[in-house]
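The freezer alarm interrupted the setup, so I double-checked each line after restarting. Inputs confirmed:
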Amino acid sequence: DQQVKQNSPSLSVQEGRISILNCDYTNSMFDYFLWYKKYPAEGPTFLISISSIKDKNEDGRFTVFLNKSAKHLSLHIVPSQPGDSAVYFCAAHLSNFGNEKLTFGTGTRLTIIP
Amino acid sequence: GAVVSQHPSWVICKSGTSVKIECRSLDFQATTMFWYRQFPKQSLMLMATSNEGSKATYEQGVEKDKFLINHASLTLSTLTVTSAHPEDSSFYICSARSLGGLRGMVLGKETQYFGPGTRLLVL
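Predicted 3D structure, all chains:
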């Protein structure tokens, strides 16, 4: 049962344009959502997070939007740069009786075209 | 940001041997470490949560006798893949949670830091 889904395995965007990566989830108990960037053969690096009580969080070129009613979040990168080319994972955080867990989506490979 | 290292970065072994992977938090104390596995073109799947000084908590479907986890100190956790088989070939990633924990989440700061991963190939 995939509780966090990224339905687009890949996305190509022209440099300078906006990149929009999408993520859907099923568990309404998730309390935080995070986006990670990952290069091949490396661990994920944290980009930005959002609490479930918010609908938007912005950090520089990265903005995450959360639509709780639709159980959907998206990451906007603007303007897109060649160095943004990587695989992006959304992750959902759950605290369960003091135990916390991150559930990851399947990832979207973003390619920025110069 | 905080640094987490893994050793080795890659390992090739024969079927039936055991492989130990180390995960170290280099500049902070980690009360909790997490072990993930990623198969090609798939998501990171949590295998187990390791708390310093106590037994690890394994996710459903993960054999605790096959994947031995030891978290003996606040800066080191080890994952031992016992009697490895070709189907165990994967990319293993650890993460370490700082003492900031959930409070760090409230502040919008990341408190779970990932290592660079270990690629295991079992022949």
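Quick read of the result. The mean pLDDT of chain A is 93.
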